[in-house]
TrEMBL record:
Enzyme Commission numbers on file: 3.4.16.4
Species this protein is from: Actinomadura luzonensis
The protein's name: D-alanyl-D-alanine carboxypeptidase
UniProt xrefs under PANTHER family: D-ALANYL-D-ALANINE CARBOXYPEPTIDASE, D-ALANYL-D-ALANINE CARBOXYPEPTIDASE DACB
Superkingdom of origin organism: Bacteria
């Protein structure tokens, strides 16, 4: 979509307005609500996703897109921004005992309990592997509190020129005013891949996680393509009943890396994402790009009101109408929690065993899945 010249920042209290580019970041073509694909090569495979981006990580070239700048609820894919923001700020060896508030977060959880201690490194694994909303809140508290963390996450989004992204929660749980886009998810993932610890967390398939009394249990990464797709590096999937399915992932083949991001998918998207990645590998270097993943702003440089994204003169454009998927959807979020971590015991996948074995979690209401 073509987005407005002003968007709200995402401080916990509503924040102030930040100037955003008057033309679509990454190129004029990415303002289209429809499919944008190169000529001279086969079309991208079909997907049920409302919005998506396929891009080359090394060059930043966008190979194909659909509604790249459309604003949608990000669900747990927003945890990529949480991780990218907090990894450089927190000592991964620091040990903490989580608050009851963190342990009682709605939705998907890794299984934190005040009866155990965890390293910050453990919390990041719980965040990016098991999509723990409890881990997200614990990390925010370690960072100095929710308000500070949200301010820093939104500042990081502005630095990345991810102007479609407004973070209201560190977990991605639906909240009025929260949004992101397929373009921004690809930007955030690209930046994350350049961080060694971020890349380690997203690519780890299984890990031992602390439990009370010095015991451990094994958690499993929710990204199914780590087991199914050749060269998959990983990144993050998400789901709520209002956001529907979202995903951003990257894979490397032949020394080249492709990133695919999708938003608002109504069903099982893993095979479709794999096909989009296959297409990306097959056309990279063979067709003119339809846009560009822009580089982050230099440290200390504020976002310009009319930041040129792709060369040439900046022109004023008319904002496209947004689909009513954000505030109203978040207000109606009433689903019950269905997932509490993913635990592997004896090679088998067992969901929710944290509750059954340790009895450390009470059933909570929430909407965030993977």
């Amino acid at each position: 979509m073509l987005f407005a010249a002003l968007i709200a920042s995402a401080s916990l209290t509503g924040g102030t307005a930040h100037a955003a580019p008057a033309t679509p970041v990454g190129g004029e073509a990415l303002g289209s609500r429809g499919l944008v694909a190169p000529q001279g090569v086969r079309k991208p495979p079909k997907t049920k996703a409302t919005s998506y981006v396929v891009a080359d990580v090394e060059t930043g070239q966008v190979l194909a897109a659909k509604d790249a700048h459309g604003h949608y609820l990000p669900a747990s894919t927003l945890k990529t921004l949480t991780a990218l923001t907090l990894i450089p700020k927190l000592d991964k060896n620091r040990r903490i005992r989580p608050s009851q508030n963190a342990c009682n977060q709605e939705g998907t959880a890794v299984g934190l309990t005040p009866k155990a201690t965890y390293s910050v490194d453990d919390l990041f694994k719980g965040l990016m592997m098991s999509s723990g909303n409890d881990a997200a809140m614990a990390l925010a508290e370690v960072n100095g509190g929710l308000a500070k963390t949200m301010s820093e996450m939104n500042a990081e989004a502005r630095r990345l020129q991810a102007y479609d992204t407004v973070a209201k929660t560190p977990s991605g749980l639906d909240k009025p005013g929260q949004s992101s886009s397929a373009y921004d998810l690809a930007l955030i993932a690209r930046a994350g891949l350049a961080n060694r610890d971020f890349a380690r967390y997203i690519s780890t398939r299984t890990a031992n996680f602390p439990a009370p009394k010095g015991k451990t249990y094994q958690i499993s990464n929710h990204n199914k393509l780590l087991w199914r797709y050749q060269g998959m590096i990983g990144v993050k999937n998400g789901w709520t009943s209002k956001a529907l399915g979202s995903f951003v992932g990257a894979a490397t083949r032949g020394g080249h890396t492709i990133v695919v991001s999708i938003m608002r998918h109504e069903g099982y998207f893993w095979e479709e994402v794999g096909k989009l990645m296959d297409w990306g590998f097959s056309v990279r270097g063979k067709a003119a790009p339809v846009g560009q993943l822009v580089d982050p702003l230099p440290e200390g440089q504020p976002a310009a009101p009319q930041q040129q994204a792709s060369g040439g003169p900046v022109t004023q454009v008319t904002p496209a109408r947004q689909p009513p998927l954000l505030d109203a959807a978040a207000r109606k979020q009433t689903d019950h929690t269905k997932t509490v971590g993913s635990v592997v015991i004896g090679g088998g996948l067992l969901v929710g065993v944290v509750w059954l074995v340790y009895g450390i979690r009470r059933r909570r209401r929430g909407g965030s899945g993977a």
